[in-house]
Design brief:
Number of domains: 1
CATH superfamily: NAD(P)-binding Rossmann-like Domain
Strand order of the largest sheet: 2-1-3-4-5-9
Strand content: 15-25%
Order of helices and strands: EHEHEHEHEEHEEHEEHEH
CATH topology: Rossmann fold
């Protein structure tokens, strides 16, 4: 079985590639940032590229919401999260299965441009699946942590600690959201591509917040000062107290994922 992975060198996509290869699948990596072990380095998936695949796992996206409302990033979001998706949907053969990586934050509505792009993306995936008379799976991830973690509060804290010896959070940390280990996310996506076609799968494990990350950091580096802003929401559009169904049985520890991420950045 041949599976194409868009965003194959990204945080989630690279773990999807690992799982597929461990299970003996033939992997076609599609990404504009190359890795030595990824055979293809493309930004736009052309029709001839995907004509021989059995499944497509679409992980490529601009996922950082910290600058979503800036004029330039709105256009980047459209290019990476909409144009690229439509190009890939058009190129995917009717005989292949398309798996869309979405976010559980859609359950809280389009509170940021990123989430709006995922809601729209889900609609486009369903429309193309209907055209082909099939069901294409949507996998909604909570915040993922683990090796190769590239943005978010864990990276921010590590940078702050390295330069200032302290950390500062953008919210009070009193309300936590569900997180998951990136390996659970990757395995759920691979199952969606190679197993039974469930219309929507939510991947959620334990509730986690920046205060939990700070505790893990203190165990690793010792005591430091932690300050915060007195508001519930962090970046504009952050979900707050999100309730997510636990459709996927998570097997990997969020705490260990946070440790692995911190080790790479501290």
């Amino acid at each position: 079985m041949k599976v194409a992975v868009t965003g194959s060198s990204g945080f989630v996509g690279s773990h999807v590639v690992d799982v597929l290869r461990e299970r003996g699948f033939d992997v076609l990596g599609l990404d504009r940032v190359g890795r030595p072990d990824v055979r293809l380095n493309l930004c736009d998936a052309g029709a001839s590229t995907l004509c021989e695949v059995d499944a497509v796992i679409h992980c490529a996206a601009l996922a950082d919401i910290s600058r979503n409302w800036e004029h330039g990033q709105l256009y980047e979001l459209w290019r990476d999260n909409m144009d690229a998706l439509l190009a890939t949907l058009r190129a995917t053969p009717a005989t292949a299965r398309f798996v869309f990586t979405s976010t559980a934050a859609v359950l809280d509505g389009p509170r940021s441009p990123y989430v709006a792009s995922k809601l729209s993306g889900e609609a486009w995936v369903r429309a193309f699946a209907t055209r082909h008379g099939t069901t294409w799976p949507i996998v909604r991830l909570t915040s993922c942590v683990g090796p190769r973690y590239s943005h978010g509060h864990i990276v921010d804290f590590a940078k702050q600690w390295r330069t200032e010896g302290r950390i500062h959070a953008r919210n009070s940390g009193e309300v936590r959201n569900p997180f998951c280990h990136v390996r659970d996310a990757a395995e759920a996506l691979v199952e969606a591509a190679t197993g039974s076609a469930v219309p929507v799968t939510h991947v959620a494990d334990v509730a986690w917040g920046w205060r939990d990350t700070a505790e893990v950091m203190r165990d690793m580096v010792g005591h430091f000062e932690a300050t915060h802003e007195e508001r519930v929401e962090g970046w504009i559009g952050d979900p707050v107290g999100l309730r997510v169904p636990q459709d996927w049985e998570c097997r990997y520890s969020v705490k260990e994922g946070v440790k692995a991420a911190l080790k790479e950045h501290l």
